[in-house]
Amino acid sequence: MSAGWPVTLSHGSIGVRPLRRRDARAWRRLRAANAEWLGPWEATLPREAGQTSTSYVAMIGALRRRARLGQAMPFALTWDDELVGMLTVNGITWGSARWANLGYWVARSHAGRGITPTAVALVCDHLLTTAGLHRIEISIRPENAASLRVVDKLGFSEVGLARRYLHIAGEWRDHRVFQILAEDAPNGLLSRLTSR
């Protein structure tokens, strides 16, 4: 396993823990119930990829393999230990770069409770301290007001606009790119969030 993985983190009712194979039923139920809510923001595979979807078992298998190699950290978001979303650390790069990017979603039923900003803060603090990364990046569609509030609350700085950055909802979509550096949050993002 890589530095800092696997790990479980929490603050009050909000937790992040490794996503497990046995989460399959709850994950599928959440995804089905939130298909319309998540659809505009969901990554899709372009036609040239030759595949339109992947099963939970295939997804979790691939993520766990990448986690063992130190390239990813797939987290379940929880509220009072109930699965309510997902946060994935992807593209972990070591060596002289020491950075990663984050993607996340939360069920509509649990939106507005501070779960996402708290989970992002917990994971970023872990990545920037225990794991030893230097930079965390989050890329957000310009229309995604809820995610833009997350990076604003946590003090991420905007790097710029990445044109046609990611295949979302069947099209290549622009994304605003944000970053936080280890030196930007010497006392951690959770302390910044909770002191607001």
CATH level-4 homologous superfamily: Gcn5-related N-acetyltransferase (GNAT)
Share in helix: 25-40%
Helix count?
A: 6
Number of self-contained structural domains: 1
CATH architecture: 3-Layer(aba) Sandwich
Shape: globular
CATH class placement:
Alpha Beta
State the low-pLDDT regions, or none: none
- Return Rg in Å: 16 Å
User: Which strand order do you get reading across the main beta sheet?
Assistant: 1-2-3-4-5-6-8-7
Distance between the termini: 35 Å
Task: Output the helix-strand order.
Answer: EEHHHEEEHEHEEH
Structural class: alpha+beta
The CATH topology assignment is Aminopeptidase
Mean pLDDT: 94
Hey, roughly how much beta strand do the residues contain? 25-35%
Largest sheet: 8 strands, mixed
Number of strands: 8
Q: Could you characterize what this model shows?
A:
By secondary structure, the protein is an alpha+beta fold. It has six helices and eight strands, in the order ββαααβββαβαββα. It has one domain (9-194): Aminopeptidase, CATH 3.40.630. The chain has an eight-stranded mixed β-sheet with strand order 1-2-3-4-5-6-8-7, with helices on both faces. A hairpin with a 5-residue loop joins strand 4 (82-93) and strand 5 (99-106). The radius of gyration is 16 Å and the shape is globular.
